[in-house]
């Protein structure tokens, strides 16, 4: 049995400002209607895999993952939540330990949640070849034959053919992301492959090698799984144990050190959607090489990618630029410097700009909210509550709130009262009152919230009762 394991813990800073820590790239529909996370899940169905996927992701994204799975009809799935980020080796170990409780000889197909793959027939063939080698206790990765000199990917140097295997080779060496001249040489010599980050291995074999080379990761994750708890259908890893794990990628921890590493050279179309230059390459273009998304107008522009979220964006007389416009941020970069955007995000974070990690729209298990206007001692928000959902029972020490329902119906708890507030009606919540918002209807409910007071931070919330155990 092949168990697909989807690794969804990345932050995607090179795709800022669309991708941010609060809502990273794997959950953003950058190329079509479905997100990379959803496409990865559906890929396992297209290949006819019978086992339900295991998802490993950030605890803060648990309800986003569950909702996106629901949207594509996947409900029987184990979602393992990382309490802190500890890189791919620990994430893969968590899935392997979890599967060991059921079948230690099961084949695990580890795959990042943010890659684009075309030609599923060729992918299926490569998976069969990888699984055959994995049944002989190899840890097998997929190497993609380069189509260009790419500096944003790691590379694998292909070694000798494995005895008794078809199209599976020893790995001679892993190489870091190269400089441009080195990338050109490796792309042309026929001996190097792009490192896809996908692996196939038995749970037992992967953990044996992890214990051999990184016993600290092994012990920490073993404890985190052993002491895991169930929470609203999720698997919550024990935070104290998991936090003790070193933060190391699987390449450094295992793949570059084990004598069981192997690679399947593959020619299916694969791309790590890790930068805006990659998005430009995958997006249909006009006659001047421009790719656009959103409300964009171009004039005498060539080979640009422009993405605007609602705001009208006009671009004139420029070449080879990436321009991203959101409600609270604008990013402009030369396409050749697309990999460097993460450095700017680090600067924003270091200087205390919330835009580095947070969107204007913040998703919650009950729906979402977004700030519309913020001034001295007041803030206006839009709050969207899904049918049947409710916010926590709470109070504030520093602000009063006025709610105006603009769509649907709200059931409002205010101290000892329960008030039904319908469209175009409002309710006032004085400072310090205990209150809760609920959508009792069958359609989404939207209201406008006006906050007033000397402090309007999100941490001014005292939760007295919460369905989502926050």
UniProtKB/TrEMBL annotation:
CDD domains recorded: cupin_PMI_typeII_C, GDP-M1P_Guanylyltransferase
Domain Nucleotidyl transferase: 4-286
Domain Mannose-6-phosphate isomerase type II C-terminal: from-to ranges: 353-466
The family this protein is said to belong to: Belongs to the mannose-6-phosphate isomerase type 2 family.
Highest taxon, organism lineage: Bacteria
Descriptive protein name: mannose-1-phosphate guanylyltransferase
Keywords: GTP-binding, Isomerase, Nucleotide-binding, Nucleotidyltransferase, Transferase
Species this chain originates from: Bombella mellum
EC number assigned by the record: 2.7.7.13
Residues in MannoseP isomerase/GMP-like beta-helix domain copies: 301-348
UniProt catalytic activity: alpha-D-mannose 1-phosphate + GTP + H(+) = GDP-alpha-D-mannose + diphosphate
GO molecular function: isomerase activity; nucleotidyltransferase activity
